[in-house]
Amino acid sequence: LQKKVYLDKATGLPNKNKCEELLDDPEPAAENVGVCSFDLNNLRRINNSMGHEAGDAYIRRFAVCLRASMPAEQFVGRDGGDEFIAVTHGLDEEAMRECLTHVREAMTEESKGHPDMPLSYAAGYALASDFPGSTMRELFSFADKNMYINKNKLLYIKEKSMKTLILLIQL
Q1: Which residues, 6 or more positions from 76, have their beta carbon under 8 angstroms from its beta carbon?
Q2: What is the spatial distance between Cα 17 and Cα 136, in angstroms, rounded to a whole number?
Q3: Mean pLDDT over residues 127-133, rounded?
C-alpha cells in the first residue's frame, strides 16, 4: 500500500505525494540541502504530433535517465506531469553544478539513440546555504524560478536562431 501511495506508476520514481511530503516540512532546511527543479520541453508538441504514447515514452526516458545520472543517495521524484525534482544533501555550489552537468551529458548521450525525439529540459536549483532559514518549499520556489529563467533563455536562443535561419533563407 505504501508503494502505491508514493510511487509514480509511469516512471517508477517517487510521485507527487512523496515530493509534496518532502517539500511540506515546516522546519528550515539543513544548510547542506539543495533542491533542483526540472521541466521537460516539447511534451505538448510530441503529444500533438506523435500521440500520447510517444509523450509517455518521452517522460519515462527522461525519468530513467535522470534517476540513473543523479547520485543514488540523492532523492529524485516526479512532481507531476512533465515536472521532476531532486533533493540533494552535501553538495556545495561547485558539486551541484558538476552534478547537473553530468545529468546534461547523460541526457545528451541518451538522446543519441532517439534523434527523432531528443530529451530537452530546463533545470534550476537552490541551495539552503544561499537562503539560510528557508523551508524546503521556499527552496523549491527559488529552484523553480531559476528553472524558468533557464527555460526562457533556451526559448530566446531557439527563437533567435530561428530568426537567423529565416533571415538566411530569405537572403
Answers
A1: 13, 14, 66, 67, 70, 84, 85, 86
A2: 15
A3: 96
